[in-house]
Fold this sequence. Notes:
Blueprint: H1 17-27, H2 31-39, H3 42-54, E1 61-65, H4 71-77, E2 82-87, H5 90-100, E3 106-110, E4 123-129, H6 138-148, E5 149-160, H7 166-187, H8 191-202, H9 207-216, E6 220-227, E7 232-238
Helix pairs in contact: 2-7, 3-4, 7-8
Amino acid sequence: MSAAPKEPNRADLGKDPASVAGMFDQVAARYDLTNVAMTFGNDALWRAATTRTVAPRPGERILDLAAGTGSSSASLARSGAEVVAADFSPGMLAEGRRRHGDIRNLTFVQADATDLPFDDDEFDAVTMSYGLRNVDRPKKAIAELFRVTKPGGRLVINEFSTPPGRLFGKLYRFYGDNVLPRVARLVGSNGEAYDYLNESIRHWPDQATLATWIREAGWVDVRYRNLSFGIVALHRGVKPTGEAAPGDVSA
């Protein structure tokens, strides 16, 4: 007798870590395919932009937090840098090892973003794509990224954001409310998970607010750049090497 199918695991805006991790465990196998369908292929362009902004170099040690199935980590590792792909979902990590486990300079580590299992000042660069929004204490995660980064090291966060144009913002919200759930149910393995995705994007703060959080954690030279009319935004900063005044937040 075959086992009964698992009930869909759907997180909510309380973002209980166990619930969020369980939800991602269930969508791991078809996660990348669903992302391609939902973003009409823009996810590859956003990943390339993130890699360029991180600017990985051979010999560097880079943390890719909320790495999921490791697509972003593999992109970074092609530079020759030593890349650690960290995620709190065992299912995502297992899928990442299956797909990219043959890359010698890429390792996979299970990690809680609010309590990273790494030493102070360990990484030359840290990055996080579409994961900060899923953390129950995002400011704590930003502080942890600061802790594990070497002085002078780089931060790059790519996250869904708020389109600044009113008309495009309305079109984007219509897509999120009416089109995205249908695409997710057609292509994905847990359509309810993408209901949560839409809710989490809607309740996530705008670009300027996230930039302020990054500055408050101690990062300097903080700025952001909109991609795809502000559907996502690339935030970056630098860990100061000594006594330094915070940099400006700019669009």
